[in-house]
Specification:
By secondary structure, this protein is of the alpha/beta class. Helix content is 40%, strand content 15%. Strands 4, 13, 14, 15, 16, 17, 20, 21, 22 and 23 form a ten-stranded mixed β-sheet that branches. It has an eight-stranded parallel β-sheet with strand order 5-6-7-8-9-10-11-12. Bound molecules: pyridoxal-5'-phosphate.
Length: 644
């Protein structure tokens, strides 16, 4: 998609992939898995090497279109998922060897971060050589874990609130010979567990979750500390030990767990929490508990904006630094307390899954202020119009502030004049159009100005475009709406063409919140994303990246759009395109989302048919037309919910 001069001859691109990288920050947030090609396309590099396969996302989009799959589409790159599992396990193995640490790393993947069966299957398969296990936080997740995790050396760690059925399921896992550890988060759970274990004649494996006082950071800092929803205080942990001693079951206590929150942005927090947690572990071990596992929970972050900072969407450390701190600090504390090194468990979900999936949406339309096309030329039927036109003529870099203030005044006065009946509707339209042109002219001058006065800072937002994209923020990137999570957004093509417009992204829900107007930048954030002006009929695709953790599964049904089509892509070095589509999972049909809201699509079709029959009977619709309308209604019930 190279740019073309008016005579149709291809122009030499002035803008390079490096310029595009500076705008979209791909090399930073992509962590080697994403790259901009010399052809201006965005690539996936599953092995993160120059020699390895490269998947052109534009080629994937072409193949999807050829298969008749409609957009938006979630692309899942299984190789990235597998690589992340290996990277995490290897990082710990490497640090354990380097530190001459005596325990092992036996990580578990927290199912809640992305519960999709295919995701869990891939994670368990890639993690099999490491006996990588699962963490569950609810009964349905435990049901899934029991069915999926058949490795008797891999852990199944159970967190969350637990009723009797939850605990019985855990004991069922023990009966099957699995390493299922019930983490006690509320004291009452312990008595119930011991009673049920007696009833079922099974030896339970027990863990305790400690409330860690180390000060958290980032958005989820409230997961730790005294007021945390989960976990036991020091006094409660001691009661657990006493009760287990009384019942002669102290040998069941195997694991100490803590969790200081997801997306920990500052490594300092990790260090402090591990130091405190390791000390609790060591003291408990000294009380005679045959502890084996030290579970440092989740929190390993993802650098969504690539700024390597402590901002909420970033982190000031790498996966290796995390593993190093956990291993070295645990060793140091256990050595000082003369306690054997435990096996280390982490429940890292975000860092494992975030990168492997992205949403590709097509641009449906670009929305520019309606003033752009209004013919305001030549009309000078009021002093205000003449003055506004004069401002437009005289505007220069030297007088922008003065001219803008005058233009604002005229706009204000014109509204009053209109209210009093002095200006006509047409005159008001001309004044507003001229004001918009003044703003646009000023916005174009800003990049070259040395000093930008305060009131002009946001002027480019006032005149920016909106790119209407075929997706729902509420379904596909709910954290962006709910908690202001930043995700990388970039076009997948034309990256060697200079972007020529600044825009925000709006979705197709009928809700003004359904938009993205904060984008990552090298430092801070920006409110507009540089994009390409589209020619009529041009297909243009935008990717929302790093959506594999939480976003995939917590989307809601706002506007009943439902799940999007999904395409699972794997690399294949022998294929000319370096990839193949392994599986397509159809997104929601209108009927299926309606069913989820208690409608009965068949009954609805029947009712509408009855209404149409009545109109046919009354002669308002001819019989053939009636049949067509019934068919159309039924087809729409079966069709994809997003825009065609
Ligand atoms: N473990 C527990 C107990 C959690 O609550 C969470 C999420 O908050 C995780 C693990 C996963 O955390 P992360 O996605 O930061 O790795």
């Amino acid at each position: 998609m190279e740019s073309r001069a008016p005579n149709g001859v291809a122009e030499r691109p002035q803008w390079t992939r490096d310029d595009a990288d500076a705008v979209y920050n791909v090399s930073r947030w992509g962590d080697g898995y994403f790259d901009i090609g010399a052809d201006g396309h965005l690539y996936v590099v599953p092995e993160r090497t120059a020699e390895g396969p490269r998947i052109d996302i534009v080629d994937v989009v072409e193949e999807i279109k050829a298969q008749g799959i409609e957009f938006p589409v979630v692309l899942r790159f299984g190789d990235i998922l597998r690589a992340a599992v290996v990277a995490l396990n290897e990082a710990f193995r490497e640090m354990i060897a380097e530190a001459e640490y005596q325990g092992q790393y036996v990580g578990v993947y927290p199912v809640k971060v992305n519960q999709m069966r295919e995701v869990i299957e891939e994670i368990l398969d890639a993690g099999a050589p490491y006996h990588y296990g699962l963490e569950a936080g609810s009964k349905p997740e435990l049901l899934a874990a029991l069915a999926m995790n058949d490795d008797h050396q891999a852990l199944t760690v159970l967190n969350g609130f637990k009723d009797e059925d939850y605990l019985r399921l855990a004991l069922l896992g023990r009966t099957l010979g699995r390493e299922v550890i019930v983490v006690i988060e509320q004291f009452y759970e312990l008595r119930t567990l011991l009673r049920l274990a007696d009833e079922m004649d099974v030896k339970p494996l027990i863990g305790v979750r400690a409330k860690i006082m180390a000060e958290g950071c980032g958005r989820w800092c409230d997961s730790g500390g005294e007021r945390a929803k989960f976990g036991l205080t020091t006094a409660e942990i001691l009661r657990v030990v006493e009760l287990l001693k009384e019942e002669d079951r102290l040998d069941c206590l195997r694991l100490l767990h803590f969790h200081v929150g997801s997306q920990v942005t500052d490594i300092k927090t990790i260090k402090e929490a591990v130091r405190e947690g390791a000390r609790v572990y060591a003291k408990l071990a000294q009380l005679g508990a045959p502890l084996q596992y030290f579970d440092v929970g989740g929190g390993l972050g993802v650098d969504y904006d690539g700024s390597r900072s402590t901002s909420n969407s970033s982190m000031n450390y790498k996966m290796r630094d995390y593993a190093a701190d956990v291993v070295y600090i645990t060793k140091e504390v256990c050595d000082a307390e003369r306690v054997a090194h435990p096996s280390i468990v982490s429940e890292s979900g975000r860092a494992v899954t975030a990168r492997h999936s992205c949403l590709i949406t097509n641009v449906i339309d670009t929305i520019e202020a309606a003033y752009a096309d209004y013919p305001a030329e030549g009309v000078n039927s009021s002093v205000m119009i003449a003055n506004m036109r004069e401002i437009l003529d005289l505007l220069s870099r030297d007088n922008v502030q003065e001219m803008y203030n005058d233009a604002l005044d005229i706009k204000r006065e014109s509204r009053n004049a209109f209210r009093l009946g002095i200006l006509t509707l047409e005159q008001r339209a001309v004044i507003e159009t001229l004001f918009w042109r003044v703003s646009k002219a000023i916005a174009e001058m800003l990049p070259e100005m040395e000093f930008i006065p305060d009131n002009l800072w946001d002027i480019d937002e006032d005149v920016s475009l909106q790119y209407l994209c075929n997706f729902s923020v509420f379904q596909s990137i709910p954290d962006s709406w709910a908690i202001g999570q930043l995700l990388p957004v970039a076009p997948i093509q034309r990256l060697t063409d200079k972007p020529d417009v600044n825009a925000t992204i709006v979705d197709i829900t009928c809700d003004s919140d359904g938009k993205i107007d904060t984008f990552i930048d090298v430092s801070e954030t920006k409110s507009l994303l540089p994009l390409h002006r589209l020619s009529p009929g041009e297909e243009y695709y935008i990717g929302l990246f790093l959506t594999g953790a939480y976003q995939d599964v917590i989307g809601d049904f706002h506007n009943l759009f439902g799940r999007v089509n999904e395409v699972h892509v794997f690399c294949d070095d022998d294929d000319p395109t370096d990839f193949y589509v392994e599986e397509v999972i159809k997104g929601s049909s209108a009927g299926s989302v309606l069913e989820a809201m208690q409608y009965n699509p068949e009954a609805m079709a029947y009712t509408v048919k009855k209404h149409i029959d009545r109109c046919v009977g009354e002669g308002a619709i001819n019989p053939r037309g009636g049949v067509r309308l019934v068919d159309f209604y039924e087809q729409c019930l079966k069709a994809y919910t997003y825009l065609k």
